Amino acid sequence: xxxxxxxxxxxxxxxxxxxxxxxxxxxxxxxxxxxxxxxxxxxxxxxxxxxxxxxxxxxxxxxxxxxxxxxxxxxxxxxxxxxxxxxxxxxxxxxxxxxxxxxxxxxxxxxxxxxxxxxxxxxxxxxxxxxxxxxxxxxxxxxxxxxxxxxxxxxxxxxxxxxxxxxxxxxxxxxxxxxxxxxxxxxxxxxxxxxxxxxxxxxxxxxxxxxxxxxxxxxxxxxxxxxxxxxxxxxxxxxxxxxxxxxxxxxxxxxxxxxxxxxxxxxxxxxxxxxxxxxxxxxxxxxxxxxxxxxxxxxxxxxxxxxxxxxxxxxxxxxxxxxxxxxxxxxxxxxxxxxxxxxxxxxxxxxxxxxxxxxxxxxxxxxxxxxxxxxxxxxxxxxxxxxxxxxxxxxxxxxxxxxxxxxxxxxxxxxxxxxxxxxxxxxxxxxxxxxxxxxxxxxxxxxxxxxxxxxxxxxxxxxxxxxxxxxxxxxxxxxxxxxxxxxxxxxxxxxxxxxxxxxxxxxxxxxxxxxxxxxxxxxxxxxxxxxxxxxxxxxxxxxxxxxxxxxxxxxxxxxxxxxxxxxxxxxxxxxxxxxxxxxxxxxxxxxxxxxxxxxxxxxxxxxxxxxxxxxxxxxxxxxxxxxxxxxxxxxxxxxxxxxxxxxxxxxxxxxxxxxxxxxxxxxxxxxxxxxxxxxxxxxxxxxxxxxxxx
Length: 694
What we know:
Beta-Lactamase, 6-stranded antiparallel beta sheet
C-alpha cells in the first residue's frame, strides 16, 4: 500500500512538473527565452547548480544555446560548445540519442576535464544529460551539473528526460521561428542593400554604400572592401570603416595571404568567431594598425563570373549567426554587380567626354544626324566651315549642305551596316554662294542609345586645284610632244632604212632610240586617254581582236627590260585563241603597263608570268610577279591617280598615273581590274574583258 502511495505521489508530481513546463513555455516564442526558461525549470526541479541547453540544426550543427552558472545567465562560447559536442558528455548524448548519468566526472571518460574540475575545486562532480527529441528528429541536448559527487540518480535522469521530451517541441518551434525570422531579416537586409547600393553609379559612392549596408546588417565594428589589382593580382584595400580606416586604405595583400587572400584565391566565404586562432589569419595587419580582430566574416565579390575582390566584416556586436555567411555572400554578389556597373558607367562617361573633346577640337567639320539626315549636332569647325551658326545648322538636313553619293552609301544607308566608314567626294554648299570641294567620311555611331550618322567633311579644294594643274600640265605635255614625237619616229624610220644592215652597233643604238620613243609615245597616249575617259568619253575604236596577238606585242615591248634584269617571263596564252572586242592599242598599253611595273618593282632574277583564260564568259588576263608585294592598306588605293604604293625603300620613281589609266581603260571596256598581294611573296594583277560576239 505504501509503495502504491509513493508511486501515485511521484506520478502526480511528474504531471504537475509537465503541466508547469507546458504553461511556462506556452507564453514564450523567442528561442533564447524558451531555452532560458527550460534551463531554469530543469535546474529548479532537478536541483542542479549549473546547466546548458544547446540547440542543433538539422545537420547537427549548434545554432544557439543558453548557459546558467551559479544562478546567472552566461554568454555562450561557441568554440567551447563545439568542443563539448565533439568529445564531451553532450556530444555522446547527441551521437547516441540517449540520456546519460555521470555520478563522478573524474572517473567518466565522456566528461571533458576543465579548469576547477579537480577534487578540491568547485567545478562539476556529477552530471545528467538528455537529448531533446521530436519523434526521430534531434533538436538539441540539455546538460545539468552539480559540484557534489553522486548527487544525481537515475530518478534525476528520468526526470531530465521527461523535461527534455516536454520542452523539445517548444524548442523546435522556437528554432524554426527564429530561422524564419533570420531568413526574413536576411532577405530584408539584402533587399535594402540592393536598393541602397544600386541607387548610384558613382564608383566611390557605390563602395561607401556597400560598407554602410554591411556595417548596418552585422553591427560590425569595422568593414573593409578589397579589390583585385588586374596588373599585380594583389588585393588592395579600396574602402573601409572603423577607427583604423586611414591606416589600411591603399595597403596590399598578396593573393592567398591572410583570410581575405584565401577567400579571393579559393572563391569561398568564411566565418571565424575566434579569428586569431585560425592559421590563415594574418596578424601583421593588426600589428601594423594597432587594431584587434576578434571575429571575422569574409566573402568573395564576383562580377561576370570572376572574383574581383573581397568584402569582410570585423567584430560584430553579437556573435555571427549561422546565416551570416549567406547574407555576406549576398551583399558581396550585389557589390560585384554594382561595382562592375559603376566602373562601366565611369568608362562610358570618360569615353563620352573624350569623344566630345575630340568632336569639338577636331580640325575637320563634323555633323551628327539621325537616319533621315536631320542634323542634331555639329562641332565648332562645322559652323566656321559652312558659314551657318549652330542654331541654323540644327534646323537643316545634311542633304541641304551637299549632294550625298547614294551609290556609295546605298539605299537607306544600307552600305553603312558594315564596321568600316564610307568615303566619297562631293561639293559643300555653304552660306551664300560658297562652294567647297569636300571629301566626306560617313559611319554609323550610337549616341545615348540612339543610332546616328556621323559625317566628317574634309576640305580638298587645294588637292583639286593641284589635280587640275597636273591634268593641265599633262595635257599640255601631250599636245606639245605629239608633233615632235611623230617627227622623231619618222626620222628614225628613215635612218633605219639608210643604215647598213651589217653594222650591229648602230643597229643596237637605233633600237634603243626606237624603244625609248615608243615608250614616250605610249605615255603620251595614255595621258590623253586618261583625260578623255575621266571626262566621260566612250571608247570608240572597239573591234574584235586577237587576245594572243595583243599579249605577244606587249611581251615584245618589255622583253628587253626584263632581259636586262635577268627576269624570265613565263607566258600562258589561251588555246584556242580568244577574240575580244576592244581598242587593241589601248589594251596593249594596259598589259605593257602592268608588265613594266612588275619589272620595275621586282628584284633582279625573279620570275614574271603573263597569262590569260576564259572565266565565266569573260577573257581574264593576269600579270604575276614574285617581288616585295603591296601593303594591304595600299591595295585599295593604288588605282587612284598620283598614288603609289609604299614598297620598301629606294623603289623606282613614277607619276602614279599608270594604274589609274589601266583602271579607266579596263572599266571603259566593261571589265574589272584588281590586285592580290602578299608582302615578300609578290603580287598578281588581274583584269577582265568582254569577249567578241560570234
